């Protein structure tokens, strides 16, 4: 593997001949080796300029719209088959589970930094895999380039030991690492939602904090869903165009297994969306129940106070009443007040109104 080691745009790659790595790599050699059936090429361009990628596109006869998509500020997950090559866009993700811990401080940064993504564009042309990754223009304090480590992909390629099976093995290894990242992010989101569920019945947790956390988790889940769900179509198109991979049916089992992983990640993501919705609705229901309990208690105490108020109000009229100007009348009034309050309290308590 060779890295140009310069700041700014970086080019890294490897050429294999008869399954063995060839020393030295230059981007200009890609077009020379692309028609050699005994070779296989991988080139990784990090933050390439438009001129650099356009020049490579002219050499390899890449679709100019695909080149524009690879350099666009944002692009959806997709796979497009052209006459001479296949263009694929996927997103690597990483979720900061610590930011979603119940005892962490809740702030706006949770929504912004908990889920990180990095776009990876791929050109599959002949026996070459060209990857384009964009990391420039991001805040230096937010190292999103760490979301996807190409060294993990290189290690995966070394593990499978199937480089002689064609460029499709390179593509499978890269997508496998990406999907594994999706699984890890979904797992961490699942753990965060379970923590959220345990907080529902914790009286020490404020309702506002719980609502805020639910909203932020749902926001991150929606962002994850946008990059996970379309992966089904991506792997499906690759399976349909497996002849273009130069490996025919030799990688069918691997891509079928990858498609199964994608489906599991998709189904898991969908179930998490239902869980977040359930948590949100349950929280609202609990708030309504608490409000009803408070209103029930307030109504009960109001009734207890209302009866003595009626008695004292009645005897406070400017007319003589039984026991007027006598101690017995005052005692009778007090006894009536206490008796009415005790009777009402017992009745409300039995009905769980207090």
From TrEMBL:
This is Magnesium transporter CorA family protein. It is found in: Cell membrane. Its main location: membrane. It comes from Williamsia herbipolensis. GO terms for molecular function: cobalt ion binding; cobalt ion transmembrane transporter activity; magnesium ion binding; magnesium ion transmembrane transporter activity. Belongs to the CorA metal ion transporter (MIT) (TC 1.A.35) family. It comes from the Bacteria. InterPro entries: CorA_cytoplasmic_dom, CorA_TM1_TM2, MgTranspt_CorA/ZnTranspt_ZntB. Pfam families: CorA. It is a multi-pass membrane protein. Keywords: Cell membrane, Membrane, Transmembrane, Transmembrane helix, Transport. The chain crosses the membrane at residues 298-316, 328-348. One of its GO terms (cellular component) is plasma membrane.
